Known about the structure:
This protein is an alpha+beta fold. The protein has eleven helices and 16 strands.
Amino acid sequence: VPSRPVTPAISVRGLGPGAWARPRLQLCFCLASILFPGSLDTSISQMTKHEGKGAKRKTSEEEKNGREEPGEKKVCKASAAIFGLKGFVAERKGEREEMQDAHVILNDITEECGPPSSLMGPHSEPPSSTRVSYFAVFDGHGGIRASKFAAQNLHQNLIRKFPKGDVISVEKTVKRCLLDTFKHTDEEFLKQASSQKPAWKDGSTATCVLAVDNVLYIANLGDSRAVLCRYNEDSQKHTALSLSREHNPTQYEERMRIQRAGGNVRDGRVLGVLEVSRSIGDGQYKRCGVTSVPDIRRCQLTPNDRFILLACDGLFKVFTPEEAVTFILSCLEDEKIQSREGKPAVDARYEAACNRLASKAVQRGSADNVTVMLVRVGR
């Protein structure tokens, strides 16, 4: 398995887009809804209704955050072909003095990951016939160092830890890989941060989408979000489905963990300062119950899925997920947007949608950094 680092175009703000992921025949996920029941098909309003309750559980935190989220029993049919995924991004500094967001777009890291043979059928091609993609946004606070570090290192750690060879359960193994990757990346940054004089106090949210064939694994820390645009055949309308759960210290489970660790929540913040209850970095708050254990959810892509939206809270302070999806759809249907420099018209529209949405967020009064990433789901 190749061990070379993945080095797409990189800047302080993250990693740039690559080429289209190669569409290939899917050999094992045709029965995904049977093998992995309960695909995420829950509306935002339904998800929000359950998130604030925070009922007590005896399971460990990693078990809770690695489990599959409950969803409606209604499951769309899985596709027999692997969907192409392509990312687009736009960012605005807003009223902040510096851009502290970062992002990563890796449309195809199949060769680097060397996926487990368990993903393949008995008469399939070698592991290269599967597809692995990775998309992430990081919203830094207290400086850019944590978000930049996460953008440069989290996917590298993921590739090194990605399951290879035979595995009993792909889903459980991938989720364990994500948990280990987040823990290792956080520990690496905290070690580097504590060695500085004075010690770095930077922190960052992280919202990552790992696509293994047509299955999405969404790992989230903090208050950035991932949203899926899916066409609802019953209502004949596009809907916004939440793929992630925000982490703030006012939520019951988050507050209880912080208090058990000796911390407190004042004015909706950890120790009256930190707005998020989970993050990479923030070493001074880790002893107070702030954790780097991500919430992990799983979603089966269907032919009704149009795009995935990943964005920091700078967008969602002034847009609801439904409003953002509606805005994006209007851009994608704008025939006045012309392709440039030989780019396909559809790519030009996705680029325009990112830029227009980010600019509109600033116009609506978002004083924060704004990063908008769209992942096109194609066939």
